[in-house]
Amino acid sequence: MTFALHGIPVSKGIAIGKAVLISRAALEVSHYLVEPGKEEAEAQKLLDAFEQVRLELDQLRHGLPKDAPQEMAAFLDVHGMILADPALAEKPIKLIRTQRMNAAWALTTELNDLLEQFAEIEDAYLKERANDIRQVAERVIKALNAQKKDSSLTGADLLSPSELGVESIIVAHDIAPHDMLRFKESAFTGFVTDLGGKTSHTAIVARSMEIPAVVGVRHASEMIRHGDWLVLDGERGVVVVAPDEELLAEYRKLQGQGLKEVRKLQQLKHAKTETLDRVDIDLFANIELPEDAIQAVKLGAVGVGLFRSEFLFMDRNQALPDEEQQFQEYRRVVDLMHGLPVNIRTIDVGADKALGSSGLDVSKTGTSPLGLRAIRWSLTEPEIFLTQLRAILRASAFGQARIMIPMLAHAKEIDETFRLIEKAKQQLHQRGQPFNPNIQVGAMIEIPAAALVLPLFINRFDFLSIGTNDLIQYTLAIDRADHAVAHLYDPLHPAILHLLASIIEQAKRANVPIAVCGEMAGDPALTKLLLAMGLTDFSMHFSQLLLVKREILKANVGMLKARFPRVLKAYEPEAQAKALERLLA
After folding, report:
1. Is residue 541 among the annotated active site residues?
2. What b/e readout covers 538-574, taking b as 16+ CB neighbours within 10 angstroms?
3. Which one of the listed residues 79, 173, 178, 517 is annotated catalytic?
4. Which of 30, 74, 454, 560 pairs as cysteine with 532 (C-beta 3.0–4.6 A)?
């Protein structure tokens, strides 16, 4: 029987093939008490398993082929850091010694506690990092169970596409980064997972490998059987199970058209980014890992519009990264961009974002997205903030590193931020360490209050960047993490369009560079709308660069601007739909 499952589209394209079902490593381990006097031997078993996995990860890391996605090495490094953290083994060993739990039982007990903590995090990106810890723990459990494989595949899951005789699509509860490499070598053509979001490892690696993927398809691994025919639509986030011949033929036709489109898009890499009426547009890349910069440059990005520095602070159960560690990572991005600008957003962290057992008390702030986060948090931890500022300043001696501050709303926050930037400069000057004294400092406009007092920001900052994801949720009072109201999140709400148009117009009039760096910038369906507002700087995930570029090359800014006032005058849904249809025609 044909049926469809829906999830989150994270890597576009259409894949057709038979399902290769990956058994869920569900941590259903044996629970028993070790004999008195054998606690230390059981603890050693756990330590030996940790060491075995460490060696496996090292072997994978050093054996990566040259054509492996750059993200793979970074993910393996993250798993290595989690594994090397003594805190992950300390509590299970204590449970073994004090309660005589067997090693696997003790480890899963600690894992469940950690996963419960991550479940309370509201930030979608950091919530996904819980999967890293779970994947590392699963690997240790496999070592404890004396499984000699180097991946999570078991039994029938070892079937390769050649054994099935057709192209194959991986279906799994979740996929670890080290398994993604094996799948790449086996030429699987798509991925479907129960878990995951737009920032999960499966999503990031699938995009870098340009393989269609749909994640967050709840219960897919339970409802799809091994060997089922599947159609995976990475554009709409749909997985069709057991399609009939008519449907298969339709999707094969769409697949062929998609492949032609991809080849055409690649031809745009070196084309000048300008509209039909010769308006120059700059396309920047949003990156999460330093290695993303390589692909960004290949696809023609003119800089990094947003480098999320949070990845350096994630999954750490000990001290936060010191100045030298941060400097090396920031400099790596600057070097990879070959002199192009790199906007490094200062850490966007708070009570709703995990810093692990860093010794910082953030419990008092609660978990509200309106709580102590981003620059608010940084200003309450000035020494941590100064450390990051010094690292960014040092990187500025090697290229166009720039500082970008998130979630500003108050003049006093701006004053204190600039005071600490000057203090960081003084500290480096006293050390005799080089930096760019004229480093550019920008602000993210993502709170309605900031948009309403924009002259305050225009007068004080070198550039501005509109974070549409948060600006929309705060303007519409929609918590994106709350599924009960997430459907009300609407980038085309008249209030949002008026706010965006006003921000862009004011910045342009003052000759202050302004970019959009939220999801709106990377949505090709909204490219002409943003051009109509006068936007000339777009910042998006690098996988969207060519799709947006194609829309820009077909646009006439003069005509779009002439039609845009009708969109702003339309408040009723029907009138707005007609005005948008005419604009985008």
Report:
1. no
2. bbbbbbbbbbbbbbbeebebebbeebbeebbebeeee
3. 517
4. 560
